[in-house]
Design goal:
Blueprint lengths: L1 H21 L7 H4 L13 H31 L1
Helix pairs in contact: 1-3
Length: 78
């Protein structure tokens, strides 16, 4: 069981990295902090971006659940 959750955690971690890197950047870095990024899109995000957000949140939930389950299994096994 520990091996299964370790594999799920590894796959979820890799998917989280890929999904986060696929998101569209929303800021320009330090220039936005000082008012340089005034031009923003008020139209909202596209359907693809919203679906990517949902998938990312779903994978994040799987990631957190696998960490908690792995922690509990390791605590019980010792």
């Amino acid at each position: 069981m520990i091996l299964l959750f370790s594999i799920v955690l590894t796959i979820a971690s890799l998917l989280m990295i890929v999904l986060i890197l696929m998101h569209k950047g929303r800021g320009g870095g330090l220039s936005d902090m000082f008012g340089g990024g005034i031009s923003s899109s008020l139209g909202g995000s596209s359907v693809a971006e919203r679906n990517l957000d949902r998938i990312t949140v779903g994978i994040a939930v799987v990631w957190v659940v696998s960490i908690v389950a792995l922690g509990l299994l390791l605590k019980v096994s010792n």
